[in-house]
Amino acid sequence: MTPAAELLESLETIAGARVLCVGDVMLDRFVYGGAERISPEAPIPVLRVERQMEMLGGAGNVARNLAGLGVSTAFVSVVGRDAAGTRIAALLGELTDTEANLVNGDNRTTSIKTRYIAGSQQMLRADEESLEPLDGRLREKVLKAVRGALPDCGAVILADYGKGMFGGGLANQVISLAIEASVPVVVDPQGRDYAPYSGADLVTPNLKELAEASGQSTDGDEEIIAAANRLIDGTGVKGVLATRSADGMSLIVKGEAPRHFAAEARDVFDVSGAGDTVAATMAAGLAARIPAGRAVELANTAAGIVVGKIGTAAAYADDIAAALRAAELAGSGMKIVPRRTAFDRVEQWRGQGLKVGFTNGCFDLLHPGHLSVIAQAKKACDRLIVALNSDASTRRLKGPKRPIQGEAARAAVLASLETVDLVVIFEDDTPADLIELLKPEVFVKGADYRIEDIPEAKIVRAYGGEIVLAELADGHSTTSTIARIAE
Prior knowledge:
The chain is α/β, with parallel strands linked by helices. The chain has helices spanning 4-14, 59-68, 83-93, 136-149, 170-180, 207-214, 221-235, 274-287, 292-306, 317-328, 339-351, 368-379, 391-398, 407-415, 432-438, 457-462, 478-486; strands spanning 18-23, 25-38, 45-58, 72-80, 98-105, 111-118, 121-128, 155-159, 185-188, 202-203, 239-243, 249-253, 259-261, 356-361, 383-389, 422-426, 442-446, 466-470. The protein has two domains: 4-320, Ribokinase (UDP-N-acetylmuramoyl-L-alanine:D-glutamate ligase, 3-Layer(aba) Sandwich); 339-486, Rossmann fold.
């Protein structure tokens, strides 16, 4: 298992990648309500509709996952000239750093999956879709969009959901263009025939799909390896990443020793979309040129997060970072949280009439000076959030030999303090974005700053927050402590 610090560095590297996602996009519609009676017209329950929700599905969910990882995405798909196609365009437009190229087909119906749910029980799914292959005109428009996007992308994902987009040889044409451009390809496959994916660097079937495509058992490690090698030899794909649900993943690449990756134990609520998350994370890893095994470990963590959510879901970079840190800091409690969890907690506190305070720093080699500032910050509020510079951020601020302690250890020490209510690790050089999100009523800095020199002061004043300068305890400094140790 790669140390969490190295995986966190890879996660940060991934955020600078750009990926081309090509595939069948869908509109996932969820209709929620209650079912307390049986219809007098037929022996079926009557759903009393209470609310509806729409989100991107299929290749659109892959794009959601890429955006969640901070990856820049070029997205190519086909929709009909209908309301669902317009809705999909709007939802894609809401994704960060996603450039969508939707080809409109006059005679096609945009794919819609409508799920009717009573309480927590799905009663029915209704599908509206076109399944025929694209005609020559639409196929050429897709290929033109792919050619235009490829030069700026580090990897390609083919998200095949069997809705007709890749019929007629389009999958092989896209892969051929990627090979010509020396861009690796990840395929989230569909069906039993993987020959159209020949030349792809990686296909990501689950065990059922692998068994069906290979015609072999996938009941154990050796059987999975044999089935994957049969696919590799018989179809021309270069590698297989078999997702194994609670048993993790297996990576089998031609010419390399097979590797198995155990899954973290998690409560499974819904496996919908976990394959999208795996494909997105692997493609992002290939685009960022991180080692394949490390990308699999990130994908494994991301998939574990997604199966703990309801519906087609995405794993966000801060979710993955929090899960990696939590695994390393098992037993440190629930104080160390990602930014979106911190936001939810702050909203709860405000609802209880509590005043939220905020301070930040690297807190390397925690000393009495740090403790004094934290204690003064706590006195100024009811609940105190400590924002902690990540290892990468600390290196940029303090130099290549810092921090002395990794972010996981620093966070654990801070979380152990009774005066600290939450610890949030941030990647930027300043916590400005985090302050903008949380809007703490009190912002505390050491008195070695002047208010006018504090970069975040303008943000705090803009929303009406208070700035408090904490008195510093004399004779305490991490830098001077390190210097004395070095003497």
